[in-house]
Design a protein that fits this description.
Elements lengths: L77 E5 L5 E5 L11 H16 L5 E5 L11 H5 L4 H19 L5 E5 L3 E2 L1 H7 L3 E5 L6 E2 L13 H9 L1 H10 L2 E2 L1 H6 L5 E3 L4 H9 L12 H8 L1 H18 L7 H14 L2 H15 L3 H15 L17 E4 L3 H12 L4 E4 L3 H20 L5 H8 L2 E4 L10 E4 L5 H14 L5 E4 L6 H5 L8 E6 L8 E5 L6 H13 L3 E5 L7 H17 L4 H11 L1
Parallel strand pairs: 2-3, 3-4, 4-6, 5-7, 6-9, 10-11, 10-13, 11-12, 13-14, 14-15, 16-17
Antiparallel strand pairs: 1-2, 7-8, 15-16
Helix pairs in contact: 1-3, 3-12, 4-5, 5-6, 5-11, 6-10, 6-11, 9-10, 10-11, 11-12, 14-15, 15-16
Organism: Eiseniibacteriota bacterium
Protein name: 3-hydroxyacyl-CoA dehydrogenase NAD binding domain-containing protein
GO molecular function, one term: NAD+ binding
């Protein structure tokens, strides 16, 4: 199992090593050779040692091809730079977006740049991003949404496989340096590299979340990831679509080393020039056995299929089942056929109603970051938060604030309630430590963001207060009045109400323009949606502040009107009402549950 390590504190580091670089203890860095990097020529049908390759005949490689003139092309988000040491740097930087995506134009340009790097005979390639806290956010969601036929989807997947195969078979060292999110097609790209470094950036997430869009990794991800991490880990990652921070990703073998933030390019250059050795994490004995013994591997695949069946029916959610087929093919079929099957399965998945619905949902969720008719530039900065009411919801909000780095003051009239809020937050972070999502030190830093009080001491420094007391209008009036006496005039006060109108809650407030609604759903740690409610007297600045804070807390906010039930509970009322209507007509409750579960 991979783990972080450093040199003993009193020992001098060996040449070519760095105690700040975390790798597997079973593969320590070696003393680098002093000779220059030999130029490697790759005969047709072979690949350089260590290359995570796929089928050669899927690509249109131009190794050894005659030189052609390089035409000037407009910037499309990726470029090649060659430094004084003849190292090629493939730099992703979309000039028109905050994130990097692998659209068709970027992929075509990337393919041309790989050929150009070959012609210029660089001694290695390093894949980096010029955007702060961002590597590659995957494929272009708009292109995914507009695929209309399985054949079109299959062709796009095969083209992506060919581009990444050119990286895999590049006859010089290839290194990827992750400095932010690297998901979907972005991670499939780096899987084709021989060495994957990740800077120790807390914003980085790594993985293959395609099933959450109703598709599957189609650029070689279902083929390369099992070979890198083993079939058990690959099944867990791909079928769930989970993404991991850098240290859990290192432990699972998804990357080769975690390096200090800001030093990724420097260390990559040392790898290219052989001044530093970073070896691969070896597969466990069990994973090696599963890769070679068909009956045992089929047993593992069967267990994964059974687990999927308990969570979702294939007719409603086919992509994980398709991903399972593609992973199985990576072991049972010749490489060319396995890659072709992955492409075909992607083509089939991308046009299913499930994929179209999930893609639409993703696009709508992304658009929520730019609400129509609300100027987020009017939002006031929020540095410190408070929550009044330390019940289940208050405790969840306290955890969320600490998780996102906001100091938060939790106030209640009962000590037992405060203890309960601390227990709620502590339990969630303890679970994260147990699952190795957090270290104990990271958990403690989050806990330090939380402070507790039975009165309003400290509220004069608060920028945003979430009121989370019981759904009683008189009590809410009393609490709002108390809060207003303690906080600065510009502090925004939001109610977590699920049923009372903001207009009524703000009635009698000294400054009703700063009263808004921010309705979280239970459990706070699992429900991404929040309702932002603008009362008739709420100022645009207060609403914008509430909305922008919801985004910073990692939630998906929707701006709703000040009406009974707002949006979600109004829909829920019809949903439950129809259930009761069916039951009154004699439909068994078990049948109703099954019908509504199938509906989604």
């Amino acid at each position: 199992m991979s783990q972080e390590f450093s040199d003993p504190p009193h020992d001098k580091p060996a040449p070519g090593t760095d105690p700040s670089v975390h790798q597997s203890p079973s593969v320590p860095q070696e003393e680098p050779p002093t000779e220059e990097l030999d130029r490697v020529e790759v005969p047709q049908g072979e690949s350089p040692e260590g290359a995570p390759h796929g089928p050669l005949d899927q690509t249109s490689l131009s190794f050894g091809a005659e030189e052609t003139k390089t035409e000037e092309v407009p910037p499309v988000g990726v470029r090649l730079e060659v430094d004084a040491e003849n190292i090629g740097w493939i730099v992703f930087d979309d000039p028109n977006d905050k994130v990097n995506r692998l659209g068709t134009s970027v992929m075509e340009r990337l393919r041309a740049l790989i050929d150009e790097a070959l012609r210029r005979n660089v001694q290695g390639l390093v894949f980096v991003s010029d955007k702060e806290n961002m590597f590659i956010a995957g494929a272009d969601i708009e292109e995914i949404a507009h695929v209309e036929t399985p054949q079109e989807g299959t062709e796009k997947a095969a083209w992506g496989q060919a581009v990444f195969e050119a990286i895999s078979r590049f006859p010089r060292p290839t290194v990827a340096v992750l400095n932010g999110p690297c998901v979907g097609g972005g991670y499939e790209l780096v899987l084709a590299c021989r060495t994957i470094l990740a800077e120790n950036n807390p914003k980085t997430r790594i993985g293959l979340p395609e099933v959450k869009l109703g598709i599957l990794p189609g650029f070689g991800g279902t083929q390369r990831l099992p070979k890198r991490v083993g079939i058990r880990t690959a099944l867990d990652l791909i079928l769930s679509g989970k993404t991991l921070p850098v240290k859990p990703a290192l432990k699972r073998g998804m990357i080769d080393a975690v390096v200090p933030e800001g030093r990724g390019r420097e260390i990559a250059k040392e790898v290219i020039t052989k001044r530093r050795r970073i070896k691969k994490r070896p597969l466990s004995r069990i994973d090696k056995t599963l890769a070679t013994v068909g009956p045992l591997r089929n047993f593992v695949l069967g267990k994964a299929r059974d687990a999927l069946a308990k969570k979702a029916d294939r007719s409603h959610y086919p992509s994980p089942y398709m991903a399972l087929e593609a992973i199985a093919a990576s072991y049972s079929l010749p490489e060319t056929e396995a890659y072709s099957k992955e492409a075909r399965l992607l083509g089939e998945a991308i046009v299913t109603p499930t994929s179209k619905s999930l893609t639409w949902l993703f696009r709508v969720s992304s658009e929520s970051k730019k609400p129509v008719g609300l100027g987020l530039d009017l939002a006031r900065p929020v540095h410190r938060m408070a929550v009044v009411g330390a019940g289940i919801m208050g405790g969840g909000v306290a955890w969320l604030a600490g998780e996102k780095g906001f100091p938060i003051r939790i106030k209640d009239i009962r000590l037992e309630a405060l203890e309960g809020a601390l227990a709620t937050a502590g339990k969630l972070w303890a679970g994260a430590v147990k699952r190795r999502r957090l270290t104990p030190a990271e958990r403690d830093r989050r806990l330090e963001k939380l402070s507790y009080t039975l009165d309003y001491r400290g509220f004069r420094h608060i920028d945003f207060v979430e009121e989370a007391v019981i759904e009683d209008l008189d009590i809410k009036h009393q609490v709002i009045s108390e809060i207003e006496r303690e906080v600065p005039p510009e502090t925004v006060i939001a109610s977590n109400t699920s049923s009372l109108k903001i207009e009524d809650i703000a009635a009698g407030a000294r400054r009703p323009e700063r009263i808004t609604g921010l309705h979280f759903f239970n459990p706070v740690d699992r429900m991404p949606l929040v309702e932002v409610i603008a009362g008739p007297q709420s100022s645009e600045s207060a609403v914008a502040t509430t909305y922008k804070l919801a985004l910073k807390l990692g939630k998906t906010p929707i701006l709703v009107g000040d009406c009974p039930g707002f949006l979600v509970n109004r829909l829920l009322a019809f949903y439950l009402g129809e259930s009761l209507h069916l039951h009154e007509e004699g439909v068994p409750i078990s049948r109703i549950d099954k019908l509504f579960k199938q509906f989604g």
